[in-house]
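Q: I'm a student working through a structural biology exercise. My instructor gave each of us a protein and asked us to get a predicted structure, then write a short paragraph describing it. Mine is Monocarboxylate transporter 13. I'm not confident about reading structure output yet, so if you can add a plain explanation after the tokens, that would really help. Here is the sequence I was given:
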Amino acid sequence: MALRAEPPDGGWGWMVVLAAFFQSALVFGVLRSFGVFFVEFVAVFEEPAARVSWIASIGIAVQQFGSPVGSALSTKFGPRPVVMTGGILAALGMLLASFATSLTQLYLSIGLLSGSGWALTFTPTLACLSRYFSRRRSLATGLALTGVGLSSFAFAPLFQLLLSHYAWRGALLLVSALSLHLVACGALLRPLSLAEDPATGGPRAQVTSLLQHGPFLRYTVALTLINTGYFIPYVHLVAHLQDLSWDPLPAAFLLSVAAMSDLVGRVASGWLGDTIPGPVARLLMLWTTLTGISLALFPVARAPTALVVLAVVYGFTSGALTPVAFSVLPELVGTGRIYCALGLVQMVESIGGLLGAPLSGYLRDVTGNYTASFVVAGAFLLAGSGVLITLPHFFCVSAPTSRPQDLVKEALDTKVPLPLEGLGED
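A: Happy to help. First, here is the predicted structure for Monocarboxylate transporter 13. I'll explain a few features afterward.
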């Protein structure tokens, strides 16, 4: 590999964006659309809905908690073999699930095996993308993550069509074949060697230094708070509207409106993140604040027009914060440590995602409505915005937008010494 002083900001990087687009679609698009199989599994296995719902929950948990493993392996061996292996595991899990005769087998095949494959694909791919871009990193990330929204619209009717023609076993076989395309996405991830890489050490040295890095730890806390309230509308908005005497179909349509606005927000925010001078953390704080306010206002709005406006605002701002959230991390720790940093962040922030929906449901059971649920969700995002203000260079007018090579020296100051044998092994 040729040694580069800084990210090329283009070139083969656009092929990495293409790979990340399809990878995000094949991971989170499948996860978001897997509810199509939910009713089928309840009927076939004659199990309660709560037990069936654990299939997707286990898959999501394994994907998020396993992210540090994918990051460490990518740091040592490069992202290409790791993501290709993840694609094989994801496809194999779906293949074995088509022969399942009990829910336990689905837990192990889809939840554990496919979830492990997803853990080896998402984080290494986004980390590889971050290494290829500096000035246009936010735009590249925004374009890559639009695959999640577009595939959510496409896969739900596609999976329903497969179910009606081939039953659930045949449909899972075809989803397995679809997931195997993750191998092709991994093959497009050409490794890139940057000048700052030798100074960052191996996986163990990087993790140790990150755990001693104050800005990184504060940023992880901020994203965990944001993640706690972020997904509440996707889980409880339809139920809240039905409490307001909305019919199920218009309520679901309002969620689709938010999803369309989400797509626009991702691309627009990516472009703004690379255009507006100053640290990207300020833009992230703006989107997070607006998302928190829109969540807190949902219980206040009663008229259909007001609810539609809030859904559009929430969709745009919640989508807009996603690409810049990934762009802030290289500014804090440098692109040399982006694999390990992104893996650790994904693992810790998943705690907020797992606790947010149950907390919202508990508040609904206690109060009898979703007012407290949405207000508390908005409060979590506003608290995350407050933590973002403490990041370095937040109030600096002349700070560059995305120049991780200028900040890596500051990030490396916190690296703790390790035995020479350990560094050699890493």
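A: Here are two points you could use in your paragraph. DSSP finds 21 helices and two strands in the chain. The radius of gyration is 21 Å. It's a good idea to check both against the output above yourself.
Q: Great, thank you!
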